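Summary for the steering committee. One of the milestones for this cycle was to obtain a three-dimensional model of the protein with fe (iii) ion bound, which we needed before selecting residues for the alanine scan. The sequence and ligand used are listed below.
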Amino acid sequence: MSGHHDDRNGFNAAKIRWFESLLEEQGVLAPGEVDDFLASYVKQSNPNNGARIVAKAWIDPTFRERLCADAPAAIRELELVDQAHGEATEEAHLIVVPNSPGKHNMIVCTLCSCYPLWLLGPSPSWYKSLWYRAEAVRNPRGVLREFGLELPEQTEITVWDSSSDMRYMVLPERPEGTDGMSEEELAGLVTRNGLIGVATV
Ligand code: FE
């Protein structure tokens, strides 16, 4: 969120750029190689992947069960963008945490910025901010309030701390009044923030 900027981001970016130029000078990297890799990586990652998984889980209770028991195996059933990439990296270490009445989940990486990029698209800058990384654990209810999400007092909030070994994605609750909707329409309701757990859908 604005107002919670982490100044270290700029410093780290400068350090990384310096290191990159050293590798280019030494001929380890071709000029622009890192940029090209990142561009293709970001192109392959897409919040529509997460939204499609959620919509499928909403309409198919047996898929939902499989998804919550073994997310990587269940996700392989769907033909998502860049399946091979997902299998090779992030998908292998993924747990889907379902919201239910009275239970809300949110994800954070307290250490850095671990995030299921492949399913959610590029992570928002606030996710990497010192503010979010600290407060999500210390005061999750207050953080959700900053996002405009006021949960009932009795709702239990679980915060999942991501790491390089384990990523999480929230399975939001299906909104009321969506009974007649198609899978595609349902996927259109799902937002990136809902998959992180700072919004209800
Ligand atoms: Fe991290």
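Key point for the committee: The chain has two domains: 2-31, 46-196.
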